[in-house]
Design brief:
This protein is an alpha+beta fold. The protein has a single domain, classed as Collagenase (Catalytic Domain). The chain contains 4 helices and 3 strands, in the order E-E-E-H-H-H-H. It has a 3-stranded mixed β-sheet, covered by helices on one side. Helix 1 packs across helix 3. The radius of gyration is 17 Å and the shape is globular. The N and C termini lie far apart (about 40 Å). About 20% of the residues are buried. The structure holds zinc ion. Zinc ion binds near residues 65 and 69.
């Protein structure tokens, strides 16, 4: 078990706008150690009951970006809590999220994940 990942994807009237990743608990080995509890917050429009949540490309990019940060937090392997997960140099903190954002538009990823909600078929290359 690596830790716990939580996601809160849909907008609500009381919710702050935007999208972000954060940690309720960071992961580290010091002392008895700690497993990370990481969450992603988004503000996607909630679909009507029984319907799929369809995301625009920009929304999907945000989802992949924040999930890149979440994996950074989940896969951390450090001794000290002060350098756990995304608590790294500013020039490195965006690397996992940028990689994930990039992979969204890689054809092999699109073919596997960008499937039509009704037919289950991949998006046409055009
Ligand atoms: Zn970011």
């Amino acid at each position: 078990e690596r830790g716990l990942f939580l996601a809160d994807y849909f907008a609500r009237p009381s919710k702050r706008s935007g999208a972000w990743m954060s940690a309720l608990k960071s992961g580290y080995k010091l002392g008895h150690g700690s497993k990370p509890v990481i969450y992603n917050i988004m503000n996607f429009a909630k679909p009507p009951e029984g319907e799929a949540a369809l995301l625009s490309v920009d929304e999907a990019k945000t989802l992949f970006h924040e999930f890149g940060h979440a994996l950074h937090g989940m896969l951390t392997e450090v001794t000290w809590p002060s350098v756990s997960g995304t608590s790294v140099s500013r020039d490195f903190v965006e690397l996992p999220s940028q990689l994930y954002e990039h992979w969204l538009t890689v054809p092999a990823v699109l073919e596997k994940h960008a499937l039509h909600v009704k037919t289950g078929k991949p998006m046409s290359k055009a």
